[in-house]
């Protein structure tokens, strides 16, 4: 694109009518800035690069994460070889180098304000830094048991939020120092956790897992999150949705999905494009206005790789009712309805298998780029999922057994053996059934909360399948990727205005837009036309010599930065004329 084309495009964007409306304070019409955005992003070219000089500084290894300061004056690179590299984004010169920032590879950087930022590493620690004195970290935060992969900062609560492959999410009060550590709390735990992100206003938390699930927590309240979600197992609830079979220990958390809930309301997102089963969701980012979630996922056995955009805005519609399974057979005539009183007690097996901060963890695997960025299940995550599946299987079998007993109106002769089996598995059948009416029948089932017993009442018909809540379709846009560099996480990102997505593309990157006009993301949820394929803006640029694994737009300037596995960092800016790179 030449100077004349850019001038004409900008001149049309700032016509006299537009300037007059702007001076009078009128709101911009929809699409008013599309022409300007298209002219800028279509002209993105590489203008500078940096890579370590082995004669002066040790090699950095892969650049796993890039982060700008809030005012765009600093750029920090988190590197595989335990180091931090700090740059001036405008001069492209390195200003600081911390060679031993952690004892293992650095995974993520997050600025808390203009001068303080946090880093996390595979050494299971989180570190706080001050850009005015990079000789020594402010403090190391100890709490995670395995590799720490994500850091977020809640501006609303002034809390640092971290998540790792131990499946735990912690909050840290950075203003309350103690002798050994900061005051911290584990607010949620789930197996197969991969990434945790907060919306810019910290009103939503979005999680992704290695089980192909995106979890949205609406109206987030970090102070009560641990109490509200205590014992909740997303994998078990998803299994109940897929099997269309009621699992009592999962159904007891159905209230978390109620649309009338005021705080910490849960929503599952599980719809993906045709041909994409999304076995592992490895990367996750939130729209600058909190409108959508941008993710990168892998299909089963790494057959394909996809970039998807899902709507995460709460719906203002009336409260929704659980979806009835239409495939269920009609109930029998004259079938009596009865009420099951579930006396919930902690299960032996669950108490033994419940994760604890004091439990010994398996040693981390080999370090390095492949080990750090791998998107496979951790040993603990796999064990926890197997425990959930076993527990669900036993519960379903026990439920069917009781239904058969009640429907026949008699107790089988081998009931004592079933009772012994129930005790051994932690799911106990009724202690006595000899003189009870089905309407007053009771039995016990384990509680995932681990607290004192409480009573839950479930109304259902024996011969028909229960009401099971189903997930809404949230997919808006998608595109298939090259699927190069299997086993590595590619950190994609939104532009500062949310119009453009930078997607690592082999040994380079490509810019993706919602349409040819580079329009903004609509405020509405998915329309009747269904999800759409994203549009590539300009041409994909393969500048690096190795796989690109990180990217970031500047929050202040029209600038893009990418990093690859060999440690090279490239700057891109809108440019016209001769290529100076």
From TrEMBL:
<comment type="similarity">
    <text>Belongs to the WD repeat DCAF10 family.</text>
</comment>
<keyword id="KW-0853">WD repeat</keyword>
<dbReference type="InterPro" id="IPR015943">
    <property type="entry name" value="WD40/YVTN_repeat-like_dom_sf"/>
</dbReference>
<dbReference type="InterPro" id="IPR039085">
    <property type="entry name" value="DCA10"/>
</dbReference>
<feature type="region of interest" description="Disordered">
    <location>
        <begin position="422"/>
        <end position="448"/>
    </location>
</feature>
<dbReference type="InterPro" id="IPR019775">
    <property type="entry name" value="WD40_repeat_CS"/>
</dbReference>
<feature type="compositionally biased region" description="Basic residues">
    <location>
        <begin position="333"/>
        <end position="346"/>
    </location>
</feature>
<feature type="compositionally biased region" description="Low complexity">
    <location>
        <begin position="366"/>
        <end position="375"/>
    </location>
</feature>
<feature type="repeat" description="WD">
    <location>
        <begin position="99"/>
        <end position="139"/>
    </location>
</feature>
<dbReference type="InterPro" id="IPR036322">
    <property type="entry name" value="WD40_repeat_dom_sf"/>
</dbReference>
<dbReference type="Pfam" id="PF00400">
    <property type="entry name" value="WD40"/>
</dbReference>
<feature type="compositionally biased region" description="Polar residues">
    <location>
        <begin position="422"/>
        <end position="431"/>
    </location>
</feature>
<keyword id="KW-0677">Repeat</keyword>
<dbReference type="InterPro" id="IPR001680">
    <property type="entry name" value="WD40_rpt"/>
</dbReference>
<dbReference type="GO" id="GO:0080008">
    <property type="term" value="C:Cul4-RING E3 ubiquitin ligase complex"/>
</dbReference>
<feature type="repeat" description="WD">
    <location>
        <begin position="141"/>
        <end position="176"/>
    </location>
</feature>
<feature type="region of interest" description="Disordered">
    <location>
        <begin position="311"/>
        <end position="380"/>
    </location>
</feature>
<protein>
    <recommendedName>
        <fullName>DDB1- and CUL4-associated factor 10 homolog</fullName>
    </recommendedName>
</protein>
């Amino acid at each position: 694109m030449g100077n004349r084309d850019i001038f004409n495009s900008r001149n049309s964007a700032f016509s006299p009518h537009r300037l007059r409306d702007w001076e009078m304070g009128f709101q911009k019409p929809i699409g008013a800035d599309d022409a300007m955005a298209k002219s800028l992003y279509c002209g993105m070219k590489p203008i500078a690069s940096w890579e370590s000089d082995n004669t002066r500084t040790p090699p950095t290894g892969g650049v796993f994460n890039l982060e700008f300061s809030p005012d765009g004056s600093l750029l920090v690179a988190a590197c595989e070889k335990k180091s931090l590299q700090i740059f001036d984004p405008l001069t492209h010169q390195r200003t600081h180098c911390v060679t031993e920032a952690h004892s293992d590879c650095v995974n993520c950087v997050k600025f808390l304000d203009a001068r303080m930022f946090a880093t996390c590493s595979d050494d299971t620690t989180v570190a706080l830094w001050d850009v005015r004195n990079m000789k020594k970290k402010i403090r190391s935060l100890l709490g995670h048991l395995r590799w720490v992969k994500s850091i977020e900062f809640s501006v609303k609560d002034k809390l640092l939020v971290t998540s790792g492959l131990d499946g735990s999410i912690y909050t840290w009060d950075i203003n309350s120092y103690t002798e050994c550590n900061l005051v911290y709390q584990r607010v949620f735990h789930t197996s197969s956790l991969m990434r945790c992100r907060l919306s810019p206003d910290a009103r939503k938390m979005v999680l992704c897992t290695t089980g192909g699930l995106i979890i949205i927590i609406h109206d987030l309240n970090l102070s009560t999150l641990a109490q509200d979600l205590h014992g909740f197992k997303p994998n078990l609830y998803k299994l109940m949705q897929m099997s269309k079979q009621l699992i009592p220990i999962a159904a007891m958390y159905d209230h978390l999905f109620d649309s009338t809930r005021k705080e910490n309301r849960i929503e599952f997102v599980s719809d993906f494009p045709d041909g994409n089963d999304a076995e592992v969701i490895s990367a996750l980012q939130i729209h600058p206005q909190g409108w959508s979630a941008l993710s990168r996922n892998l299909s089963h056995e790494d057959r394909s790789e996809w970039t998807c955009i899902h709507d995460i805005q709460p719906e203002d519609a009336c409260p929704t009712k659980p979806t009835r399974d239409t495939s269920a057979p009609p109930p029998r005539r004259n079938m009596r309805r009865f009420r099951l009183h579930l006396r919930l007690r902690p299960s032996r097996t669950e108490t033994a298998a419940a994760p604890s901060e004091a439990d010994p963890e398996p040693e981390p695997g080999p370090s390095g780029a492949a080990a750090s960025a791998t998107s496979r299940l951790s040993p603990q995550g796999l064990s926890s999922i197997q425990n959930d599946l076993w527990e669900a299987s036993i519960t379903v079998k026990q439920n069917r057994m009781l239904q058969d007993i009640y429907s026949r109106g008699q107790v089988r002769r081998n009931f004592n053996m079933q009772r012994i089996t129930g005790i051994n598995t932690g799911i106990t059948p009724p202690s006595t059934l000899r003189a009870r009416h089905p309407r007053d029948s009771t039995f016990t089932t384990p509680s995932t909360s681990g607290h004192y017993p409480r009573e839950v009442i479930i109304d259902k018909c024996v011969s028909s399948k229960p009401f099971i809540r189903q997930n809404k379709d949230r997919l808006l846009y998608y595109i298939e990727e090259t699927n190069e560099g299997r086993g590595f996480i590619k950190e994609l990102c939104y532009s500062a205005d949310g119009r453009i997505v930078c997607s690592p593309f082999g040994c380079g990157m490509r810019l993706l837009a919602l349409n040819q006009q580079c329009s903004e993301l609509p405020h509405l949820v998915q329309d009747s036309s269904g999800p759409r394929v994203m549009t590539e803006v300009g041409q994909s640029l393969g500048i690096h010599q190795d796989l690109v694994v990180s990217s970031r737009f500047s929050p202040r300037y029209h600038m893009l930065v990418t990093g690859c596995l060999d440690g090279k960092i490239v700057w891109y800016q809108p440019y016209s004329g001769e290529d100076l790179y």
